[in-house]
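Margin note: ligand = adenosine-5'-diphosphate.
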Amino acid sequence: MLNIVLFGPPGAGKGTQSERLIQKYGLTHLSTGDIFRANIKGETDLGVLAKSFMDQGSLVPDDVTINMLKNEVLKQENPKGFIFDGFPRTNAQAKALDEFLETQNTTIALMLALDVEENELKERLLKRAEFSGRPDDANPKIIQHRINVYLKETMPVKSYYENQNKFISINGLGSVDDISEKLFEALDNIK
Ligand code: ADP
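Resulting structure:
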């Protein structure tokens, strides 16, 4: 199995690049944000809970997120590997993911990070709000809070993978195709 974590701040392009990576490598895409949004749409208990955090731009609690993620992994039959998009977002999630993957006799091969500076992120998110319908994209205050949460709670996850020599950062500015090429190159190098 080939398991990758796609990392980066809100608006860095993780969703867009995930699609490219799935196509090329036949991996299963697990976006915790997408799964929460599907639950919100389906009005499940998980959706109701997640919405109260997401609308504020705060993280959904670790235990809820970790359990959901594990269930999603276990649902897949004979997966070739996973792209984890938006997960892990805290060190506790990263540790839980490692422990869980070990029980499945697999591991994370690489964390690929998309590096984009803050002003560009804000512009992108406000633009995305025009068609995403996401309440957390439409409000500059909530966007700022998401970026702050990213800096405080999620950035440390980078060191977690750096310490395992599994971290590669890629410039997230430029054309979608150019960025995909750089991601492919990084992945092909470790395969
Ligand atoms: P973005 O990367 O643009 O913030 P996501 O779809 O990845 O978009 O996440 C949207 C929201 O979903 C987050 O602000 C958070 O509330 C929730 N969420 C997603 N993934 C996680 C996670 N791993 N842990 C906790 N909350 C999460």
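The chain has ten helices and five strands.
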